[in-house]
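Reopening this ticket.

The earlier resolution said the output was attached, but the attachment link was broken on my side. Pasting everything inline this time so it's all in one place.
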Amino acid sequence: MSMITPSGRGKSQFKGGARRNDNNRIYANPLPLLFIEPPPSRLRSVLGLLGLSLTEVVNPHCEGIFDPTTRSVWVSNAKDTMLLWRRGFFGKGDLSRSEPSWLARQINIRNMGGKQMTSEEVTAKRRAERRQFKLDRAAAIAAVAAEAEAIFEAEGRVIKPALSGPAIPSAATWRPSSSPAVEKPAAPLPEEGEEPAELEPLVDVEHLQLTLQEAFFLAWALDCLTVVDPHTNEAMSLKQLWMASQVAHLPPSIPQNPHPPLQFDNPFLVNYVVYHHYRSLGWVVKGGIKFCVDYLLYKRGPVFTHAEFAMVVCPVYEDLEDQNASSLDLQNSSPFAWSWLSTINRVNSQVQKTLILVYVTIPARSRLSLDILHSPACFEHYSVREVTLRRFIPARMRD
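Inline output:
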């Protein structure tokens, strides 16, 4: 049982208060599957007493293409893409930060002239303003230092340059300078009788990219995704997807051994154990490379709240001899330095995330046969433990 529970922060954790109602409507379903309850009836009451239900399960049956090079599954159908994103926040757009919004951005640029910015454009603007603020502050500090040096050379008085004050901009007082708009040459008007040139229709070239952990969860746990083999263009069976996901994480094989042996410490297995564990507990699990961690946990999704927890996956071998004999070098499987741990903890503490070390115990080869890796039944031999880290701040934690 997981010991992780929501922190219960205030209302400030919710983003976009004016759009909260729209988000609740658009992202109302936490999973691609829909459960439709029949109207109340006497038959429903009787079946309920017997432990039976008339609830109808609507399965969307999405489709994706397996790509071993990027270790992902590509979903190109626009309907399936939006369905998987809006019902559970699965995957990310390959041309977007998270939600597949490339086509919407292009339509906005064409129709609105870029007046209504998307989330990616807002982030780019904020980063440019933050960079300009740092440059302006550095220039102001350098000017104050130069003035103090000039006074010392002229009058012999020593003045300590101030790092704050009216001359030094701060985050509260600095405002971005409005650069003069560059006038674009007006397009020539069409002559009489000449039709205006039509714009080429926009084609959505973006696809939803699912990690292999997300794809297998959708195919195995929810049975709502069909993965197609890129070589045969035929649907892969669950066993074929299971084997292909493991082989994609193994070192390149030599021609004499086209089918390398499976291993208990396969990165796909270790990460899927963590992904499935927290997905089954109701969390939205997303990649955390932006914060130097493996996964981020959202209570409802990225559009509702910021991630509360940052997860670092730490594989632990049940038998240390397996680690020495393994051909894989799992990340964080060896003892790490305290300086690294303190750095990761500080980064996530600054963005109000609790760091969680997730220890995944890898079963020993001496007590299990490799044949068990040919099916997901091997997961019963893995275990997950959690260690919560908090940064100790003496000024705030004296009691």
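Reporter confirms the inline version is readable. Residues 45 and 51 are 10 Å apart (CA to CA). The two ends are 30 Å apart (CA to CA).
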